[in-house]
Amino acid sequence: MKSAYERALERLDEDGIERPREGGLAKEVRDEIAEIRSRTEAGVAKLEILLRDRLRTLHDPVERATAQREYAIDRKRLEEQCDHKIEKLRKAT
């Protein structure tokens, strides 16, 4: 009887998708990825704090919605930058 992992690997082969590397990433690369994620989380936290402060002073629903939209855009940008940096690191190894 095959494990779920073995069946998943077989499906990857059938679909023509490259199998995951056995060795994984070097410790230095994992540490860099963790640092990138940590910085991104800090940036998102900062955005959330700024949004809360801004929402406290805004009473107009249109302005509040605009502030929330801007927050969502900024958060998505930070997350995309994080993903891009991590992908770049992974491809370099």
Write a compact overview of the structure shown.
By secondary structure, the protein is mostly helical. The chain is 80% helix and 0% strand. The chain has helices spanning 4-14, 27-57, 61-92.
Please characterize this protein's 3D structure.
This protein is an all-alpha fold. The chain has one domain. It contains three helices and no strands. It has helices at residues 4-14, 27-57, 61-92.
Task: State the separation between the terminal residues, measured CA to CA.
Answer: 35 Å
pLDDT < 50 stretches: none
Radius of gyration: 20 Å
Order of helices and strands: HHH
Main pleated sheet: none
Query: Which descriptor suits the 3D outline?
Result: elongated
What is the number of independent domains?
1
Question: What structural class do the secondary elements suggest?
Answer: mainly alpha
Counting H and I runs of at least 4 residues, what is the number of helices?
Answer: 3
Number of DSSP strand runs:
0
SSE topology:
Layout: H1 4-14, H2 27-57, H3 61-92
Features:
3 helices; 0% strand; 93 residues
